Amino acid sequence: MPTVLLQGQLFPSEIKQLKQEFLRYDFFDLNDLPIEELPAAARQSTEIYYGQQLPKDALEQLSALHWIHIPSPSLQGVPLDEIYRRGSLLLTNTLGSSVQQVAEYAMGGLLYFAKNISLWQGMKRDNKEKIWKSPHRESIWTLENKIFLQVGLARLGTEITKKANDWGMRIWGVQEKKTFHPHCQKTFSKDELQHVLPLSDIVSVCLPRRRKYHHWFKEEQFNLMKSGSILIVLGHGSAIDEAALVLAAETGKFRGIVIDAFEKAPLPSNSPLWNLPNTLISPEVAFLPYDTQKRTSFRLFRHNMRQFVRGNYTDMKNVISRLDET
Q1: At 60, is the secondary structure helix, strand, or coil?
Q2: Strand, helix or coil at 243?
Q3: If residue 41 lies in a helix (H) or strand (E), which one and from where to where?
Q4: Predicted pLDDT of residue 322
């Protein structure tokens, strides 16, 4: 009997529903049982894996695996290179349930640098004279009338502009083609990006993981950005040329950089990004906490499993292809 391995926040009632609907599969709950302790027959017959974490050595034990579903937007917990090397593995994930959390994170990162929180944090409480005479007092931003440029106006980008609008900033948006957007005072096409970057106080980049968005931001774009601006990178990091960002940031150009998305996750310990000045780096946590009330991931997984067992792979949702990762 083919096997499904479940390692995630599924309720017992949801697992019961899966067992009742998909009778030809044997389901194993991995929350209390590591893959290594599964019977060899179960590992060898595993076709489907549902879970946030699948280390490379565990993947190697699942020779019959055909589909992996990640119950979150993040791909950090799976070995993408190994998955694509196999060539026959389907990979899907859950999107859409954490858009508000991402927007909140963007606003938190913006405030961190706008209000000089990183600079105040290092001051000693007993040095009152230094605090009152600090030049940081004069450089605190008010966000009213600052130009907030959102690059990417899909669901995540739209939610970010919605939050930013509440703070009195002037919201501009950039996407492939210039169209109306309900939360932007102005919108621009990709070809107009070079004209608006020098005018923007905050640049938030939140683009889908697609080949056509690969390195939208490289040396030319970073050089065009206003001196003393804030850069926020969320969603997926493939839109950013990290080597070019390092060169620009080392000049002290940016007031602050918030990075929660990388070309390759997790970010290697020897990455030069770790040493950049005025930079806040986090390991793809903007989506947290995941929305467990709507049960989005369970519903999506059940829909995709219905398609999978019928061989309707083109009808499966949120399929991530290798081209998306390039």
Answers
A1: helix
A2: helix
A3: helix 40-44
A4: 57
pLDDT tens figures, 170-197: 999 999 899 999 999 999 999 999 999 9
CA angle, 97 then 102 then 107, to 5°? 150
**pTM (whole model) above 0.85:** no
Distance CA 213, CA 209 (A): 7
Which positions ≥6 away from 91 have C-beta within 8 Å?
Answer: 67, 68, 70, 78, 83, 319, 320
User: What is the mean predicted confidence (pLDDT) over 303-311?
Assistant: 96
How far is residue 191's CA from residue 314's CA, in Å, rounded to a whole number? Answer: 32
Q: Which two tokens stand for residue 126?
A: 């007993």
Angstrom distances, CA of residue 66 to CA of 14, 49, 326: 22, 8, 22
Instruction: Give the sign of the dihedral formed by CA 292, CA 261, CA 227, CA 270.
Output: positive
Contact 106, 204 (CB under 8 A): yes
Task: Please give the structure tokens belonging to residue 77.
Answer: 């917990």
pLDDT in tens, 27-48: 998 877 778 888 889 899 999 9
List the helix and strand counts (H, then E) for the chain.
13, 12
Residue 60 · residue 43 · CB < 8 Å: no
- Return the residue matching tokens 């995630």: 8
